[in-house]
Amino acid sequence: MGTSRAEPAKKVLILSDKGIIMKILEVSDELYLIDLPHERKGFRKFISTWVFKSNKKAFLVDVGTTKTVKLLVEALKYLGVEDVEFILLTHIHIDHAGGLGSFLEYYPNAKVVVHDKGKKHLINPERLWEGSLKVLGDIARMYGGIKPVPEKNIYEGDVEFEGTEVEVIATPGHAPHHNCYIYDRYIFVGEAIGVHHYLKTWDFYLRPATPPKFVYEVARESIEKIHDSGNFTACFGHFGYEEDSRKMAELAMDQMDLWVEVVQEIACKKGYRDEKEIIELSREELTKKDNLFSKISYLDEDIMDREDYFVNNTLSGIVGYVKERFCPD
Fold it and tell me: What is the pTM for the complete model shown?
């Protein structure tokens, strides 16, 4: 099957029992991206799982939500995966790891690799669920609850798949428990360099993923780590991939610098103090100055509506950082 830059080759699995169309994007003979859509409008081409497959064995990067575990299991069956050796979590937010406890009921021998700061919250997810409800509200309820992960499944030590090391890079910034993973010619970046989306124009949309509590210096250092690790295909948590990870890291650093600069100008130099007003004015300015973010208008309408919420959350993190760092009350 031929490929285009804007839409990779894909296999499509239709789950007729729920009427949900789930796309499995084939990146290479070994690597697949599973789109895990939700019923809520716009929540497609957003939450996903990466599958690196060798015969009937595989490792996964993230598992999505409890709501989509059955979709993921069906997709793995479709791909002929019988043994999930590792689950590499980029971080423990519920759109990436919320379904893990449920997923392990299907693959009880899978070894979970997670940042040290995330382990206790997987084993006892009560605080993670409470925090998710506080921040996401009805979206968290749509994602579904969180089942505990058995402590025996948490893996500590070097990670090796089919004789090749998986390099683990701690990349706090989007979250203090965020990791990136390098394997073969791929780097799985989670949300460290932002949220990506293909456009029908053979181009892409990109924005930062900087929810509260955002610390610019930590986030930028994490992106620098990705840049300095080498040049790979960058595999995003949301959504898709780009072949030049160094270029993407450079774009992400420039973008983050610009967003902080714009918010600082509005919040500190112009003296606006109301967060909603700062966010609204910042979005207007960024639409003019950021040619990657401005492509939000090229997204499908339902996806654009979804992004509207998350862009505000991203800016809320930056507003909080700028006020605390540069112009406290």
Answer: 0.95
